[in-house]
Automatic annotation (TrEMBL):
Family named by the database record: Belongs to the flavoredoxin family.
Domain Flavin reductase like: 69-227
Keywords: Flavoprotein, FMN
Keyword Flavoprotein applies: yes
Cofactor(s) the protein needs: FMN
InterPro entries cross-referenced by the UniProt entry: Flavin_Rdtase-like_dom (IPR002563), Split_barrel_FMN-bd (IPR012349)
Taxonomy, superkingdom: Eukaryota
Protein name: Unplaced genomic scaffold SPHSTscaffold_77, whole genome shotgun sequence
Residue segments, region Disordered: 1-23
A Pfam family hit: Flavin_Reduct
Record field: transmembrane: none
Length: 269
C-alpha cells in the first residue's frame, strides 16, 4: 500500500471532535445569513454564479465524481455477508443511510459497473441477511483494503486483518473491531434501472436491524453513542475519507412556542 504524500501533516490521533457555538448565535426568524461567521466569503462566492448540469446529457462517468464529492459526508456501511455456499465477504459501501427507527431500517445501494453485480448484493439477494459495521479511525486502512475487486471466492477478511465475531441471529459474522454493528435481515430489494430502460445498473436494499451490538466504551449512561469515542469515518469525494470535526447544537423549534413571532413576520410585505 502506498504511503500518503510526505507534504501532508501526520494523522492526529487525538479526537478532533468538539462542541462549539453555532456560526450565528444571534440569528432571528426572517434574518438573512449575513450575521453568521464566514458569511461574507460565502456571499462573495455567490457572485460567481452557478453552473448547471443536465444529467440526461451526461455519462455515468461524468455524473459520478460530481455526486460523490457534492453529497458529503456519507456514512459508510461495512458489510459482512455470506455466499449461499458459505464464503465470507466483507466490503465498504457509502451509498448508505439510516431510513427509519420504527421499524429500524438502513438502506445501501450497490452499483453494477460492467454489468457485474457486487458480491455483497448477490449474497444478500440469496441469503437475505448481513451485518453492517461502523468503521472507526483506527481500522480504516483494514476496511479500505476490503474494497479490492477480488473474485467472489476470495475471502477479504483474511487480508483485512480484521476479526470475525459470530452474530447472534444472522449467519454472517460481525466485525469484532467495530464499536457499532447491526445484524440485518433483508426487508426490501429494488433493482435500479435508468428511466425508460430495463437495464439493471444497480440494486437498492433496505435492511431490517434485528440486533445492535455497541461497545460499552462508546455508550453513554443515557444510552447514546458518544461521537468522540466512536470516531467514525465518512466518505468524501475521490479517494478521501473524513473524520468528525467541530459540532454545534441548534434548538428544535416548536410551533406552539414560536407561532406569534413567525405569524407576525408573514404579515410583512
Ligand atoms: C469507502 C468506500 C465506499 C464505497 N461505496 C460503495 C457504494 O456505496 N456502492 C458500491 O457499489 N460500491 C462502493 N464501493 C466499492 C465497493 O466496496 C467495491 O466494489 C467492492 O469490491 C465490492 O465488494 P464485493 O463485490 O465483494 O461486494 C466503495 C468503496 C469504498 C472504498
Amino acid at each position: 500500500m502506498k504511503a500518503s504524500p510526505k507534504k501532508r501533516p501526520s494523522f492526529e490521533p487525538e479526537s478532533t471532535f468538539r462542541l462549539t457555538e453555532p456560526p450565528n448565535t444571534n440569528w432571528r426568524y426572517g434574518d438573512s445569513y449575513m450575521g453568521s461567521l464566514g458569511a461574507e466569503d460565502w456571499a462573495k462566492d455567490e457572485e460567481q454564479g452557478w453552473k448547471t448540469f443536465d444529467t440526461s446529457q451526461m455519462t455515468p462517468r461524468e455524473i459520478y465524481p460530481l455526486m460523490i464529492s457534492g453529497i458529503i459526508p456519507r456514512p459508510i456501511a461495512f458489510v459482512s455477508s455470506l455466499s449461499p455456499a458459505g464464503v465470507p465477504n466483507l466490503a465498504p459501501f457509502s451509498y448508505f443511510s439510516m431510513v427509519s427507527h420504527h421499524p429500524p431500517l438502513v438502506s445501501i445501494s450497490f452499483l453494477h459497473p460492467r454489468h457485474k453485480e457486487k458480491d455483497t448484493s448477490e449474497n444478500i439477494r440469496a441469503t437475505k441477511a448481513f451485518t453492517v459495521n461502523i468503521i472507526s479511525e483506527p481500522f480504516v486502512a483494514n476496511a479500505n483494503f476490503t474494497s479490492i475487486d477480488a473474485p467472489a471466492d476470495v475471502d477479504e477478511w483474511i487480508g483485512s486483518g480484521l476479526t470475525k465475531e459470530p452474530s447472534t441471529i444472522v449467519k454472517s459474522p460481525r466485525v469484532k473491531e467495530s464499536a457499532f454493528s447491526m445484524e440485518c435481515e433483508l426487508y426490501h430489494l429494488h433493482d435500479l434501472c435508468p428511466p425508460g430502460s430495463s437495464e439493471v445498473t444497480g440494486t437498492l436494499i433496505l435492511g431490517h436491524i434485528r440486533m445492535l451490538h455497541v461497545r460499552k466504551a462508546v455508550l453513554s449512561e443515557k444510552g447514546i453513542v458518544k461521537a468522540n469515542n466512536l470516531r467514525p469515518v465518512s466518505r468524501l469525494g475521490g479517494k478521501m475519507y473524513g473524520r468528525l470535526g467541530d459540532a454545534f447544537e441548534l434548538p428544535r423549534l416548536s410551533w406552539e412556542k414560536e407561532k406569534d413571532v413567525v405569524n407576525e413576520l408573514q404579515k410583512k410585505p
